[in-house]
Amino acid sequence: MDIVVKGRKTEVPERFRKHVAEKLNLEKIQKLDGKVMSLDVEVSKEHNPRQADRKDRVEITLRSRGPVIRAEASAADPYAALDLAAEKLSARLRKQHDKRYTRRGVGRVSAAEVASHVPDAATLDANGAVVPSSEETEAVPTKRIGSLEVQGEGPLVVREKNHVAAPMSLDQALYEMELVGHDFYLFVDSDTKEPSVVYRRHAYDYGVIHLRTDPMVANGEPSPDAGGTLGG
Hints:
The protein is α+β, with helices and mostly antiparallel strands. About 25% of the residues lie in helices and about 25% in strands. The chain has five helices and nine strands. It has helices at about 15-25, 25-30, 80-100, 170-180, 215-220; strands spanning about 5-10, 35-45, 55-65, 70-75, 140-145, 150, 185-190, 195-200, 205-210. A four-stranded mixed sheet has the order 1-2-3-4. A three-stranded antiparallel sheet has the order 7-8-9, with helices on one face. β7 (about 185-190) and β8 (about 195-200) form a beta hairpin. α1 packs parallel to α3 (about 80-100). It starts with a strand and ends in a 14-residue tail after the last helix.
C-alpha cells in the first residue's frame, strides 16, 4: 500500500512528501489495522490573511474494510498541520483497535463516509432544491453547478458525493462519527431502514434526528408540515 499525497489548488513539494512518508509509518498503522486499503493525504491553503495562523490544512483519510477514519488539522505551516493530524489519526486508530479487540466475535456493520461538508446557509425545499433567499435574486443570472442552480457569480464551492451505506445501529453510528472526527454522521437506521443523523451537542451529549416518510406526500397529497425546521 502506498501513501497518496495531493494538493488542492496548491503545489506539494517533494520534501513534504518525504516528510509524510516518515511521519505516517505504514508498519505501525498496519499493526493497528491490518486491513488498510488506502491512505490519502490532502494539503490545501487558506488565502484569507486573517487565518494566517492556520493557513495550511492537512486532511488524512484512511480506508480499510472497516469504518473510514479521517483526521484533519490546520496550522501556520503544512508540517505542523501534518503533525497534528497524524496525532489525531493515531488516537482514532488505537480507539478502533481497542474496541475491535474487546468486542472480538461481535459482528459490526460498516458504512462509507457521508459527505464531509454541508453548506450552512443553504435553504432547501421539500424536493431538495435550493430556494432563493430574496426577491433581489430575480434579475441575477443563473447557472448550474452539479445538480444545483447558482444565481450570480458566487463564490460558491459545491462538493457532491454519493455513497452506498449499509444499515447500522445508533451505537455503531456514534462510534463511526467519532472515527471520522465530525460533529454529525448520516446513516441508515437498521431498525427503521430510514435515514437518520446523529450529532454532537455538548461535551459527550449527543442528539439524533430520524427522518420518516410522510404518508400524505407518499400518497401525492400536500403535507401541512412541509418546510418545517428541526430544533436541537
